[in-house]
Amino acid sequence: MTTIAIQDNVDEIFSDARRMQVQAIERLEHGNIRDAAEKAWCATKRATDALILALTGQEPGPTGLTSDCLDDLVESGRATNSLQRRYYSRLSQLHGACFYSGACNRHTERRIRETAAFIADAQSLSGG
């Protein structure tokens, strides 16, 4: 894949992440916090995949591979511990606890809303 093709794909994935975040806020405003949490998690995953693609030239695929690649980027100094912590927080709390278990808490809405900042930070780290 050429550098231009990779960048086009990175841009498309970040765009998808932002669309998912907009949908998360819409679902939150309609009172469906579980669906909002899952959409915010999806936005987080997509933004992380875009970051990984931008920095490595490879899109990771399933969540386990995304997690491994993000850990490698942090270890190499190409991503921040803060982004890593926020990624795992969303994986655990938005995707696992709230969406799957229905265990949404007083921090869920904040995590959903702050996903926009996660996307922006991932894009900044990607060089975009």
Number of individual domains: 1
Low-confidence segments = none
Q: Oligomerization state of this entry?
A: single chain
Beta-strand level of the residues, as a percent range?
A: under 5%
User: Which fold name fills CATH's third level, the topology?
Assistant: Four Helix Bundle (Hemerythrin (Met), subunit A)
Task: Note down, in words, how this protein is organized.
This protein has one domain: Four Helix Bundle (Hemerythrin (Met), subunit A) (Up-down Bundle), CATH 1.20.120. It has helices at about 5-30, 35-55, 65-75, 80-100, 110-125. The model has no long low-confidence stretch (mean pLDDT about 95). It is mainly α.
Topology:
Elements: H1 3-29, H2 33-56, H3 63-75, H4 81-100, H5 108-125
Helix pairs in contact: 1-2, 1-5, 2-3, 2-4, 2-5, 3-4, 4-5
Give a quick summary of the entry.
This protein is mostly helical and 128 residues long. It is built from five helices and no strands.
Which terms summarize this structure?
Four Helix Bundle (Hemerythrin (Met), subunit A), 128 residues, mainly alpha, 5 helices
